[in-house]
Amino acid sequence: MKAEDIKKITVIGAGDMGHGIAEVALLAGYRVAMQDIEQRFVERGLGRIKESLDKLVEKQKVTDENRKAMLGNIETFLDIGEAVKDADFAIEAVPEIMDLKKKVFEQLDAAAPKHAILASNTSNMSVTEIALTTKRPDQVVGMHFFNPAVMMKLVEVIKGEKTSEETMQTTYDLALKMNKVPVRVEKDSIGFVYNRVNAPTQIYLSLLVERGMVTPEEIDARMRKIGMPMGPYELMDYVGLDVAYYGGQYFAERISRDYEPSDWLKKKIDAGELGKKTGKGIFDWSKGRPEIDLSKSKEDFDPAVLIAIQANEATKLLEEGVVTSAEEIDKAMASGGGSGIGTFQMARGIGFEKLAGICEDLAREFGVKVFEPTETLRKGNI
């Protein structure tokens, strides 16, 4: 099957990611089915789509006629079988719980047409493991959108061990038709590209707070002052502290115990303070986006530390064959974050030797093996 053959897309899950992906499909001209387990979830997701389309009409990005046509192109369901029975492409967007994803894919495989491609929007988890629950592992692929799906350009297209080249190419071409920037992930590796490169910075940011070395506002103010649209702690809140927590647990199980979530983050989770989605997390979101006091900027904090950690992890992706080139990593990082600049592009401006030295110092100071510089970073021939 080619991308041109796709007429109807089913999205499983109507939450933040699910309804966003459904809207992306509508904007690209597809018929869409959106499913969730309770009517209230479906109605809330559909309501969010309507609100978003209304805003696009106000901004004159779509016409009112187009808005009505798109709303006429979406159906909602509670039953997975009904939602996917005539789909050409299905995208799962349920919470990051492996057992839940496996259950969903068993149901999709049983009910979807034989030609249909089954994609997971997982941000971290093994596509290969998910695919093993189906009788069509060659037609199972990772298709990782970023939040908010309508605005963010990056889509990671992840190859499981048995994913066919036809499935990869069709999914890549579908992302292009959705006006996204797809990046091929050639090896099913935990965290893929964007989240894998950023994951070690979560260790560092957590350690700074855990040890009382900084406050989140001091770092965010510093990063905002140098031009970042959002500081790293505010971004954690925006995505959801639960996502960071469970992602950390998964990385700890699959890659290194260094990723084990810190006590301060666990306390936030236990208190139900998950960030924007609950109105409170690291910051207070009850009145909208938190105000960051730029006068509290920690001026002696060197942003090169974060770049060093990211560049070091990015070299591991090259060494492991997760992607084919440094350019693909830079495309992912530039499109997924909002800075518009790739990790290696920034690293070259600072110097690989300096960054390797920073990583050595961090590994020694914090006792974190993940921070140890790779041979690729030391040599700098990237």
Q: Would you write up a description of this structure?
A:
The two termini are 36 Å apart. The chain is 50% helix and 10% strand. The protein is of the alpha/beta class. Strands 3-2-1-4-5-6-7-8 form an eight-stranded mixed beta sheet, with helices on both faces. The protein has 17 helices and eight strands.
Indicate the topology.
Layout: E1 8-12, H1 16-27, E2 31-35, H2 39-58, H3 64-71, E3 74-77, H4 80-84, E4 89-92, H5 98-111, E5 117-120, H6 127-131, E6 140-145, E7 154-158, H7 165-177, E8 181-185, H8 194-210, H9 216-225, H10 232-239, H11 241-254, H12 263-270, H13 304-320, H14 326-337, H15 343-350, H16 352-366, H17 375-379
Parallel strand pairs: 1-2, 1-4, 2-3, 4-5, 5-6, 7-8
Antiparallel strand pairs: 6-7
Helix pairs in contact: 1-2, 8-13, 13-15, 13-16
